[in-house]
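Input chain follows. Return structure tokens only.
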Amino acid sequence: MILIVEDDPQVARLIALVLQRHGDQCEIVADGRTALSRAREMQPSIIFADLTLKGMGGAALCAALRAQPETKSIPYIIVSGDTDLAATAKSCGADDYMGKPFEFEDLVRLVEKYAGAESRKAD
């Protein structure tokens, strides 16, 4: 299961559609606090998250996940149109980042790199 944390419904649906066509199961949440709770509950194989989120931004979400033993090893990918993504990803402990707009192939490549077959296991 892949957790998509994105407050723009169109972008969230697009990411989910691409991943589902690739054989992955996805869940979408729109804010950081819900994402933190869902990550603890569902233990996703990978998390794709925007930086600009209501309640708790993507960088704060990443840092919070990294601080908890049960979520610190979940691959975390920032997906954002913000500038200087590399520095933000490094500072919060994200595994990788992808700029918006993005190519579908890049999204699939990141899943294969960090989650691989694990993300396609039935829950």
